[in-house]
Amino acid sequence: MFQLIAAQGDAVQAFHEFYGLRVVITDGGLASSGGEGECLNVFLAADGENSDSNSFSGPIRGGCAAGPFPAMTQLMADEEGLPDELQSAFPGPTALQFVYDKANQKIVIFAGE
């Protein structure tokens, strides 16, 4: 599980890096100005390391909460463009699912082939 490392009110929560990926929880998603419930966003940690900017370019995956279902997203660890350290930790066609556990403010990661 990821542990929370930073929070800006209830709007943005950032979590520890996971094999070159960064997860943040936002209120309404990164591309919107707010909305219903929280959204989980996964992107390359290297793309978000410029502290002089409040934006970045690069791939992002995300999904928002829907009714009783938590915010989540999923990807294949061997997809082109993902960090080598992720592909080494999860070789082959491994699916990863990132789910926000709101009650405990943690990200739970499921892996499967």
pLDDT < 50 stretches: 1-7
Total number of helical segments? 1
Strand/helix succession = EEEEEEHEE
| Straight-line N-to-C gap | 19 Å
Structural class based on helices, strands and sheet pairing: mainly beta
- Total strands: 8
Mean pLDDT: 82
Q: Report the helical percentage.
A: under 10%
User: How many distinct domains?
Assistant: 1
Amount of beta strand = 35-45%
Q: Please state the CA-atom Rg, rounded to the nearest Å.
A: 14 Å
Plain-language structure description:
It is a single chain. The protein is mostly beta strands and 113 residues long. Helix content is 5%, strand content 43%. An eight-stranded antiparallel sheet has the order 5-4-3-2-1-8-7-6, with no helix packed on it. Residues 1-7 have low confidence and may be disordered. It contains one helix and eight strands, in the order E-E-E-E-E-E-H-E-E. The two termini are 19 Å apart. Strand 1 and strand 2 form a beta hairpin. It is globular and about 35 Å long. It has one domain.
